[in-house]
């Protein structure tokens, strides 16, 4: 039985509080207004004017306030003495002391790196910064990474290699409306960022041509002019094939290549292997469609290539992103007006979350932990000796894979991520989590990961705290407090400061976001993601500030890679367009290879995974939201009618999906929109329908991104026991 809703208390003004959505990286602006009802105060959500969403919100944002008062919400810390015991409510003091003890005992037994933290890209900049500092300074451990490794790491690695800088979009979102040609590769904004579609529609109304590369005919593809439908995991070959054709038809920009890039001759030679018929055989995309695509891309004055997880979440994801960047560079796009390559960051703070030190190899300001000068600067801000700082640790999946083993983490804090559902190969990950000496989880709800913990901490939610977020464009925004947090919950900032105090380093940690942001500004100063000139007041006055912004009199940098525009290029050793040592962007030779797992007799089909419109990520939040459950009550697997007929299943029938790692059951949703050799399933569901029990943890050698987007699967018609199916 659901309990009563929590009451809301607020001192918010009558006209409401301006803030941003708790969910995706679009960070739509919204106004939260308290309204008196007979049942108590409710918080009304309305879209607000802003340069990104212009008042628009999707159904997730609109329904977000429901979770503030949700009866399932955690409102007290929970502890237990053994994993087979039920949780009992505990005081904050007891819970934090237990965590400090769990971390300390593991470090005493197994060494410093045996205590670690797994973070999340939904946390504010202040929290992400504090998490990185906490692990390096209070634990002096190398063991920290976060869920952004499963999200942006391939695109980030490629952008850093090619441009010397990783900011997902190097231009404002609204520029999309000014481009003449836009190609989206493995990105489905119609479902994942619905209000962003206004910019695409505005472009098409101006006569722009849009192309979508996706194994499914998505809502985004349906709105476009050209759909390329490759076999999953073949985008790299497709990009090389398009560039081969561009060279053949003399459509490349030789002046741009000569002036702004290095490495072209080797790429040009390598492209010889990508003749059109071969690329058609690998990708399944007909040569005539490739011909049309390359003419469109090269034939306009303003062309954008936008990448998403479909191209990136592969064991060759970073090379795939590089292949599309090669195409963009050869066509002379990056730095030109309303042109360039970009990747659409996903989580609320997916951009800021990867800049301030949650990643195993990073320090704040996108500095590198292995760089002596970076260590010196950041240690100075932190008030510690640079030699005290650990060296880089291992990536997210590697950390999870080694939990509880020799050399692995033995005591872990998970903050703002539900890895028991969202990591690849989750059956194995859950087993590893169970093998830990100690597990603490901070969340709003008792997530599937929290269910495995020794201590669970109840976290504040977005509308209950202040902070900053960096959106999909690299624009730093203000998240504002609108209501009081319920008694008994605390912000992750306070949790980390409280733990640091119990570990003897309390003097170095603050728990209020303004103080932490002021410190973040100093720590990031002079780094690639330079926030030194960004103040909360400026964000307010200027509707967000784009980084890099090195000083308070600097305007911020909406558009990157334009000479002399303060975009970091000015600070490179020679003047140039890109913040690389020679000011030039770099081509990279990259070659197609098979997916880590290819279909065979035992597992004859391809499984790809991703998102549906009404649900978010591991589903902890959206599976508890009435409006979203009404829109999409349960999991389903998308399958072509021809394949369904061969398997003997029909619409609404039950399908058993099996891979070398595990199995899941879902209802069938017939769709002519998908390739007949491939099925698509969302990862938003748990229990029997945990699709990540099936996914392949093969990692990209550079980014350490797992291969979420393709593995080999066996499909069998098999009735689901009804109580499971409906539960
Ligand atoms: N509703 C909703 N919105 C969200 C989220 C959510 O969970 N739900 N999550 C947010 C986050 S964190 C992220 S990262 C973004 C993700 O946003 P997207 O990257 O747009 O989302 P996905 O659904 O993961 O993948 C996009 C598309 O890739 C296609 N695809 C699968 N395999 C391949 C392939 O091999 N090649 C190509 N070219 N395409 C392929 C899929 O069919 C899918 O349509 O969305 C954000 N917004
Ligand atoms: N098969 C497959 N798997 C995937 C993907 C895919 O495409 N296919 N995509 C991957 C991608 S791109 C991503 S980003 C990951 C996301 O995977 P997760 O990290 O699991 O994402 P969320 O469900 O957003 O998890 C956030 C958790 O933190 C809680 N939370 C929210 N805000 C806060 C806060 O401020 N503090 C605290 N303490 N808790 C909070 C939420 O209730 C939720 O339980 O999944 C990855 N997994
Ligand atoms: S598009 Fe993203 S930021 Fe905007 S309302 Fe929906 S979930 Fe929130
Ligand atoms: Mo993501």
From TrEMBL:
Domain 4Fe-4S Mo/W bis-MGD-type: 14-72
The protein's name: Molybdopterin oxidoreductase family protein
Pfam families xref list: Molybdop_Fe4S4, Molybdopterin, Molydop_binding
SMART domains for the chain: Molybdop_Fe4S4
Keywords attached to this entry: 4Fe-4S, Iron, Iron-sulfur, Metal-binding
Lineage: superkingdom: Bacteria
Organism taxonomic ancestry: Bacteria, Bacillati, Actinomycetota, Actinomycetes, Pseudonocardiales
């Amino acid at each position: 039985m659901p309990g009563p809703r929590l009451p809301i208390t607020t001192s918010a003004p009558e006209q409401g509080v301006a803030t941003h959505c708790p969910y995706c990286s679009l960070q739509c602006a919204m106004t939260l207004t308290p309204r008196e009802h007979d049942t108590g105060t409710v918080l009304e959500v309305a879209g607000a004017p802003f340069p990104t969403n212009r008042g628009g919100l999707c159904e997730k944002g609109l329904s977000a306030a429901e979770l503030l008062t949700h009866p399932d919400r955690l409102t007290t810390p929970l502890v237990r003495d053994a994993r087979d015991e039920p949780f009992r409510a505990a005081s904050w003091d007891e819970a934090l002391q237990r965590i400090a003890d769990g971390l300390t005992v593991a470090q005493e037994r197994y060494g410093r790196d045996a205590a670690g933290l797994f973070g999340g890209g939904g946390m504010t900049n202040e929290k992400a910064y504090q998490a990185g500092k906490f692990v390096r300074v209070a634990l002096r451990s190398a063991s920290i990474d976060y869920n952004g490794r499963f999200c942006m790491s391939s695109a980030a690695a490629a952008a850093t290699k090619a441009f010397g800088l990783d900011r997902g979009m190097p231009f404002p979102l609204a520029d999309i409306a000014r481009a003449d040609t836009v190609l989206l590769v493995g990105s489905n904004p119609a479902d994942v960022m619905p209000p962003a579609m206004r910019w695409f529609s505005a472009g098409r109304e101006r006569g722009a041509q849009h192309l979508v590369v996706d194994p499914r005919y998505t809502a985004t593809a349906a709105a476009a002019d050209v759909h390329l439908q490759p076999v999953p995991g073949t985008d790299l070959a497709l990009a090389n094939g398009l560039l081969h054709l561009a060279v053949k038809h003399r459509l490349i920009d030789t002046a741009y290549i000569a002036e702004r890039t290095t490495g072209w001759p080797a790429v040009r030679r390598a492209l010889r292997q990508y003749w059109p018929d071969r690329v058609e055989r690998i990708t399944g995309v007909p040569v005539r469609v490739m011909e049309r695509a390359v003419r469109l891309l090269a034939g306009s004055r303003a062309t954008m290539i936008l990448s998403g997880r479909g191209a990136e979440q592969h064991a060759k994801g970073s090379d795939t992103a590089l292949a599309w960047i090669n195409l963009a560079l050869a066509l002379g796009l990056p730095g030109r007006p309303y042109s360039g390559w970009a990747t659409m960051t996903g989580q609320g703070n997916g951009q800021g979350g990867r800049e301030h030190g949650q990643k195993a190899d990073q320090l704040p300001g996108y500095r590198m932990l292995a760089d002596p000068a970076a260590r010196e600067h950041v240690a100075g801000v932190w008030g510690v000796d640079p030699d005290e700082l650990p060296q880089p640790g291992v990536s997210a999946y590697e950390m999870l894979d080694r939990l509880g083993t020799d050399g692995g983490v033995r005591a872990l804090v998970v903050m703002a991520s539900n890895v028991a559902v969202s990591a690849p190969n989750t059956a194995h990950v859950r087993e590893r989590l169970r093998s830990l000496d100690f597990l603490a989880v901070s969340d709003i709800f008792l997530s599937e990961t929290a269910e495995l913990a020794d201590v669970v901490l109840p976290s504040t939610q977005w509308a209950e705290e202040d902070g900053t977020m960096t959106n999909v464009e690299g624009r730093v925004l203000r998240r504002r407090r609108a209501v009081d947090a319920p008694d008994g919950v605390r912000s992750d900032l306070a949790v980390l400061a409280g733990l640091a105090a119990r570990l003897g380093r309390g003097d170095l940690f603050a728990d209020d976001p303004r103080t932490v942001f002021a410190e973040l500004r100093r720590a990031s100063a002079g780094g690639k993601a330079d926030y030194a000139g960004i103040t909360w007041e400026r964000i307010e006055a200027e509707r967000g500030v784009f980084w890099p912004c090195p000083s308070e009199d600097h305007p911020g940098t909406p558009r990157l890679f334009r000479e002399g525009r303060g975009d970091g290029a000015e600070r490179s050793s020679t003047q140039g367009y890109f913040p690389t040592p020679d000011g030039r962007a770099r081509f990279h030779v990259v070659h197609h290879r098979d997916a880590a797992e290819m279909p065979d007799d035992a597992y004859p089909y391809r499984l790809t995974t991703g998102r549906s419109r009404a649900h978010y990520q591991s589903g902890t939040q959206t599976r508890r939201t009435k409006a979203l459950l009404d829109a999409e009550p349960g999991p389903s697997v998308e399958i072509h009618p021809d394949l369904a007929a061969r398997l003997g299943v029909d619409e609404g029938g039950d399908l058993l999906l099996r891979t070398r790692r595990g199995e899941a059951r879902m209802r069938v949703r017939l769709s002519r929109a998908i390739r007949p050799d491939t099925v698509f399933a969302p990862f938003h569901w748990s229990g029997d329908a945990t699709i990540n029990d099936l996914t392949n943890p093969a990692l990209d050698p550079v980014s350490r991104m797992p291969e979420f987007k393709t593995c080999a699967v066996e499909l069998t018609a098999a009735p689901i026991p009804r109580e499971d199916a409906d539960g």
